[in-house]
Design a protein that fits this description.
With about 600 residues, the protein is an alpha+beta fold. It is built from 22 helices and 10 strands.
Length: about 600
């Protein structure tokens, strides 16, 4: 039972924003019953950590089923065609493997596709095999038990990008004149650190919140399993629905894939909507409340007025839409800077009619309005993030937004946050920032390691290392006889000395000074003892006459050795400079005789 609970906890706190990187490594034949089929082994890596990887095996039919599911997005995808006969040929399987890899690359290049549940389930069936919709409906039924006046009108499946967040349209049973509401259920995320009491206090603040550009929840409830929020339903949908010309009830693939009615907003609307969102964000920041995770899907439109929603996402600890980009940008490490960066992506989407697929805006499109270009250069370009990154107040004071005249609102914004709750929220924000900083540091280390391995494995580096190794060997061979002379390198008759006559020459001259004995059979053998000289003389008379003694060999030429240096070592220099005459005479006293 404990293993099951641990498994569920691991799934609950998984960061769904980290992209999966699939690579088809090989194909193999598998047998099922009496039939065999080809299966393709896909190695999947989560993010940039090579240790967080696994393998899954899929048949061609599984790839084709995924292809048909994603066709509703209208994004062009290529997949190898089916073949009835000869589909087990080696060359055919190799060609099909390359075609399937191209298909996976196209899927992962489209943000709306790589975030979808079906793609996650195809690549990671262990963590995405559960039915999140049924799980959410089971938890929503508990709400209807405590609130019997509400009933479910219809479920809104797949209307948002979050996999672990489900939506339902609900209505009042007693008063049909009341407008319809939307109920959302969301599981906690990896940044969840608040307890139930702290969450209940935050929800009371949210329900009492009054601001013209924030849509407060009507009801809010939190348990250990997740968060339930009820808000008024906005039939016009979100800002993203307006950009793509879609209704809010449609599937996320159908709405935001590649619709034909996608268009950029007018410049006055961009300035007005941006000003309204910034007003809401600055208000929350001044109150010490965690900022909502800003993107075009979290901004609803109500008769031309923006309403910021889902400000509770930071409380429950779910990651933001652009977190996988923030991991690669170490300059953005605070909660407010993360919000400014997300606002820049939303501003780009309003101007261009589509999402920015890269982390930074390296080249500014010509179709961007002139008034927006300086803002995006400060928020989204690499140089702007490094040198001139603005705050929320700086953006609000920008000429593009400050010159917008907003209509008068009904009343003064109201939000009561106690000092004790502010301290709790401040600690919660610091924990989120710490986790972001740690992941940025880890990714930076992995990048450096990967870059070092690539440079070591490159052909140019291999050639450089081979040349350097050869050069070191040649230098070692040339310097070894000069720097470290050994006795093997010198002639055998030469030994260390300074008198000019070697030891072997001295021994030979001493032997030549005395006549050799008659019994000596060779010049190298010593003379026999006097006790056995007679016997040996008789014996040698029978043998042939011994050859004459060898003539004295001239002394060997002295080898010119360079003077001792420090490189040869102190030991070698002391040995070469040794002379017998420098030894001190010592008198010994023999005390071995016994004492009487």
């Amino acid at each position: 039972m404990a293993s099951v609970l641990e498994k569920r906890e691991r799934k609950k706190f998984l960061d769904d924003t980290i992209p999966l990187i699939p690579t088809i490594t090989t194909h193999r034949m598998e047998v099922a019953g009496k039939q065999s089929h080809a299966a393709y082994v896909v190695r999947v890596q989560r993010g940039q950590n090579p240790e967080d990887s696994w393998e899954v095996s899929h048949r061609y039919n599984n790839f084709y089923a995924l292809y048909q599911t994603l066709q509703v997005s209208n994004i062009p995808l290529d997949i190898p065609s089916k073949k009835m006969f000869g589909n087990t040929d080696r060359q055919f399987l190799n060609d099909r493997q390359q075609g399937l890899q191209k298909f996976l690359d196209q899927v992962m290049a489209a943000p709306v596709l790589r975030r979808h549940f079906e793609v996650k389930k195809f690549l990671d069936p262990t963590n995405y095999s559960l039915s999140f919709h049924e799980d959410a409906l089971r938890n929503a039924s508990m709400f209807f038990r405590s609130e019997p006046t509400w009933s479910v009108v219809e479920p809104l499946k797949d209307i948002g990008w979050r996999i672990r967040k489900q939506y339902y349209v609900i209505a009042s049973k007693t008063d049909h004149r009341l407008p319809k509401h939307m109920l959302s259920w969301c599981e906690p995320g990896p940044d969840s650190s608040l307890g139930e009491k702290e969450m209940e206090a935050c929800f009371r603040v949210m329900t009492d919140l009054r601001h013209p550009y924030i849509l407060s929840p009507v009801l809010a409830n939190y348990t250990g399993g997740g968060m339930m929020i009820v808000r008024e339903l906005m039939p016009s949908g979100s800002l993203r629905d307006t950009i793509y010309g879609q209704r809010f009830q449609g599937s996320v693939l159908q709405k935001y894939g590649q619709p034909a009615r996608s268009r950029a907003l007018s410049l006055p609307d961009i300035a007005k909507y941006g000003r309204q969102v910034l007003e809401a964000l600055v208000f929350l920041s001044e109150k010490g409340f965690p900022l909502g995770q800003v993107h075009a899907g979290n901004v609803l439109l109500d008769r031309g007025t923006c309403k910021l929603v889902d400000i509770e996402n930071s409380l429950v600890g779910v990651p933001s839409l652009h977190r996988h980009h923030l991991i690669d940008i170490r300059r953005i490490h605070s909660h407010e800077a993360e919000t400014v960066y997300s606002f820049g992506h939303m501003l780009y989407e309003m101007c261009m009619g589509q999402e920015l697929k890269t982390a930074t805006l390296d080249s500014v499109p010509e179709s961007l309005p002139a008034g927006v270009v300086p803002i995006l250069q400060r928020v989204l370009t690499s140089n702007g993030i490094k040198d001139n990154f603005p705050s929320l107040s700086n953006l609000l004071d920008d000429v593009f937004f400050s010159t917008v005249s907003l209509p008068p609102t009904g009343g003064k914004p109201l939000m009561k946050v106690s000092s004790k709750l502010k301290e709790v929220l401040k600690e919660h924000i610091s924990k989120m920032e710490l986790r972001l900083h740690e992941e940025q540091k880890k990714v930076s280390q992995l990048k450096r390691l990967s870059k070092a391995q690539e440079s070591l494995m490159s052909e140019e580096e291999k050639r450089k290392r081979r040349k350097l190794r050869k050069k070191q060997l040649s230098l070692q061979e040339t310097s070894e006889p000069e720097s470290y002379p050994t006795t093997k390198a010198l002639p055998r008759q030469n030994t260390i000395g300074t008198s000019g006559v070697t030891a072997s020459t001295a021994v030979r001259s001493k032997a030549n000074s005395a006549p050799p004995p008659a019994s000596q059979s060779s010049s190298t053998q010593p003379a026999a003892s006097t006790t056995s000289s007679t016997a040996k003389t008789k014996k040698s008379s029978a043998t042939p006459k011994a050859p004459p003694p060898p003539t004295a060999t001239p002394p060997a030429p002295q080898v010119d050795r360079p003077p001792p240096t420090e490189k040869r070592g102190a030991l070698l220099g002391s040995i070469e400079g040794f002379t017998k005459g420098k030894l001190k005479k010592v008198k010994t006293k023999d005390r071995s005789a016994p004492k009487v």
